[in-house]
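Bug #2210: token dump truncated for Putative nucleotide binding protein?
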Amino acid sequence: MSEADSDGTDIRRAVVLDYLAHGLSDDGRPQYEKSPAGYALGIDDFQLYQVAFDEEERLTIGSEVVVEPPSEREIVTEAHRVDYEDLSSGAQSELEYVVADLVEENEQRFVDFYNDAQPITLRLHQLNLLPGIGKKLRNGILDERKRKPFESFDELSERVSGLHDPDEVLVERILEELRDDDLKYQTFVGRREQEQNQ
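Reproduced locally. Full output below:
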């Protein structure tokens, strides 16, 4: 995941969503000048990247690569942020699976979201931003976490009646934030930058 090197450099890793061995279709250069390209999703902050890869490397969808800082890149030669609409259709269709895998692989981080979520305004709580979580479910989660913090998704579904797939609810919210950059509140996408700017 995110790690700081011995010199304090913040390393950002991403998962490859699509690998285009012959470069991007809208790249007007002759084929021999194009480098392999693709799209990737940031592991910590779910930022989307368009990337160019080293000619010598052969990658598969799901590979992990370093996108930032440039000095730490090994396979990626260029990376810049893009929006959901800019992704190839292959990357868009892969996105849901990659997000679901990241939520599953980082279960503790996302269970902690349920444990630590706070009110945003007097009327709106972070938990209410999750699809399907209204007042009743939110209150159920808050009451249960006061008794004892949740330790897993399974425990969340057992202890909070009506909350059947707490991991899928998070995946839905992350995908919603990725697809709609006009959302007023971003809870997961770009979270790291928000924290750094505070």
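Output looks complete on our side. The radius of gyration is 19 Å. Marking as cannot-reproduce; reopen if the truncation happens again.
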